[in-house]
Amino acid sequence: MLRKYEQNIEVVDPQLKNNVELVDCLVEFENSWSQGLTYFMDSKKLSQLLHFSQVVEATAEKHKQFSEQLEQRDAEVFLNIPALLILKSIENDDKEICSIFYPDM
Fold this sequence. Notes:
The chain has helices spanning 2-6, 20-40, 43-62, 64-72, 77-90, 97-101. The protein contains 6 helices and no strands. By secondary structure, it is mainly α. It folds into 2 domains: 1-41, no CATH class; 43-105, no CATH class.
C-alpha cells in the first residue's frame, strides 16, 4: 500500500475513513500484529509454534501424500495434523502442545 502511494501521496484522502483500501490494510495489519504479540512475544508459544511448523514441514518432505494434502488444502489434512501431533506426544516430542489443547489426553 505504501508503494502505491509512494509516487503521489496526494491521492490519499486526509480523512482516513474515505480510503477504504488503506483502512482495510491497516485493519489487517493491526490484526496480524495482535496475533503476533500473542504467539511471538511468549517464548513458550513461540517455541511450540516453531516446533509445530518444523514437524509439519519435515512430514511433508518425507511423505508426498501429506505434502499434496497441504498444497491442495485437502480437508483430510485437518485429521492428519492432530494425529501427527498425538504421535509426537507419545514420543514426548510435541513441546506440550497436545496437553494445552486437550489436557485430559
